## 1
Amino acid sequence: MNSFCNISGYRFVQLDDLQVLRERMHGALLSHGVLGTILLAEEGINVALVGDQAAIDQSCAWFDDDPRFADMDLKLSLSSFSPFSKLKVKVRPEIITFAQTGIDPENNPGKRLSVSTLKQWLDEGRDFCLLDSRNNYEIESGTFEKAESLNIDNFRDLPAAVDQAIQAGQLDPDKPLVTFCTGGVRCEKTAPWLEAQGFNEVYQLDGGILRYFEECEGEHWRGDCFVFDDRVEITPQLKETGSVICRRCHKAVSHRYQQPPYYLENEYCPACKDGKNGYRPVRGRKTAD
């Protein structure tokens, strides 16, 4: 039974008194009984929360009472368990680390493309570049069948990877380009940055993969979608897959491979068992979008 409501979203809006806001927000949301992670920065807020319907409704009402967060676009999915174990509200330099100057998504956002328009373009076989701005381990879980990727392990590596892709002829600045990510927050920075680099026609997928799943399910998609909580992956129908994270190489392990000889918890998974990808330090999941 899917009794847990998961909401996620973000807003680029100027914030100040971040520590005061953090304490107030943590106290209010804790009293409502939700769990999850919220990132605050001067540039805005990034939200991922879970709770029962009443707790989520109360939390959304709390956000709506603050004009800076009112009517925030929060995407909803259901799960059979809570994908978070505690509530964290953190202050960071950026709500999604990109480390590029001159980008202002609040006042100078990139052009948006609706998920229905993207599906139409894909149905028509239109000639454009569909750029996956996510990390390699996310893309391994699934992506659009037409998508181009940049072979990055961290979002902050995207600018250098774009330069390399242009030099290699993989990306053409004169060709229409649609960039996408899980929930949209990364593309809020990717799209205007690409425009500043001379790309002539750039769009960001409005609402990201999660909004596409809500409206179009699996059309033109292959596989599942990596998410930054204990569900690990969800299907195009927004249901958890039963996957877990390998604590060695940080890759998703599907349910059918979660036993020896393929998988041993905290030791190896099919991706790193034979040392093909090397062993990386055990690390926790990050919050992205």
## 2
Amino acid sequence: MTDETAALEGSEDNAPIEDGAPPDWRASIEDPDLYRLSERYESATAMAKAVSDLRRETATRIKPLGESPTPDEIAAYRKQTGVPLSADGYAFDMPQGTEPSEADTAFQNEMARAMHGVNVTGGQAKALGSAFNDYVARQQADTEAVSAAALEQSVAALKREFGADYDRNVEYARRAALDFGSESFVEFLETKIVDGAPLGDHPAFIKAFARIGRGAGEASIDVETPAGDSATLDERIRAKRTEIQQALDRGDHKRAHQLDREERALWSRVRD
């Protein structure tokens, strides 16, 4: 029995004819299966219509590709399902307010080639890209929260250990890092994460470089601020430090971390 025969047998549109009907139009049907199927229809026209409707429905169905499809079968499948003609046909959205970097573009191109190879539709690709952006945003938020908490813990631990000398020791450490390290070293301290916080904020680093700064004779930290631009920079540094503490007090760890970066930048100008 064919698939069409089975589908037609399951139709409930027609019922067997009753006594007194016109001459049996099924008399010429020799195949037993087809004859039983015909008994569900009151006329050859009704049966032909059912076959026509089934063919029309079948024509719109998407036939899955087999294990070794031909190029023509692949092309037909892609046209029917909305798969782009090539990997260049995919479009990926970036998070609002951001532009794709070189790394983003390289990643998107690689994903486009992989998606096209397994016949992902354009709509599916967009949905996957959006889900990935959401995942990255959540990961970034989690990382910032961990970093902020680590910074707060670092500050609290150093304040307990240094007491009233906390500010002075932190300045010793930062000046030592600026005096003995290059700009790339300072960038390394800001980007290298240890125990959830930038290396430059780690208690062990600050304690070690505070000793280096004191040993190098950084007595100028305690002298009066010179006049001119340096005085202005020192005032801005002190203001940044106050803002950092205020941000930490109100629980705005992300802002505190940003202000800390700005203070580091001011210190680099003092050194220059």
## 3
Amino acid sequence: MEDPSEYCMQAVNCYERNPERAVALFTRAGELGSPEGWFGLAEMKINGMGTPKDVEGAVELYKRSAEAGNSPAMFRLGSIFTGSYGYPEDQEQCRYWFEKAAENGVELAYPEIAAIYLYGYGVAADADKALHYYKLSADSGNAQSMFMMGYLASEGVGMTKDEKKAAEWFRKSAEAGIPEAQFRMARMAESGAIPGGDKVALQWYEKAVEQGFAPAMFNLGTMYYEGRGVNRDFNKAFELYDRVSSTEDGDALFMTARMLFEGLGAAQNVEEAMRRFGRSANAGNQLAKQFLDDLRRKQNTQFIKIDGL
């Protein structure tokens, strides 16, 4: 007697080195009525492995598998209906299948359906359901969902606003390496919401900076600029501000322009400073706009070039 489960196992073991063989095995398992066989064949078709790429055909197989109770197929359908794989977006179908996957214990689906209910994607926003699924995800070890639990607690979404609970979740997320959470921990230390003050803030900012998180770079630059919680170091401040300014951040451009104009942390360069003041103003920084307006009124701009203005 043929065993579709054995065919699927063989296909999984050979799909990389012999995708055509895997397609044949998944096809035979599907012919024998195996939801796992339909799912495996759909995976091969959607990726064009061992068979021509066929997104439409893959979706039909995923549906057949999901309707037969295969939870990975439910999750895949949720992903596909976001508009991925070149398939048309369908918000209602996306919600339906992600929720089905979550109800069947697919942990990857928890934060997906949580975000759908939080932001009202294809369904009325529901803070209680969002909280429920973020909590399931966070409890399963998802660090980004731990951050979201902190956010919900800090904003009072789906629960009473609770800074202590927010700090607990942000800490768990930060310790798991999420830079946004590390940034939040630093801000809370600065504000006194958690103990440690500038010393603790410095430590969390440094961790977030190591991961390239721009807001942490800017705030850490300000700590060095002001000598707050650390020895004042204009060179370090300029280096951090300059890294952020490469993203055309108006505030970072203003600070580097100011430092170049005054020769703080970098060699004085008025022409480059004025270019950066112009870029900062174009990015919406009001202090840069005011500075340039003041220069114009004083008629002192004839010897410098203000880039873009």
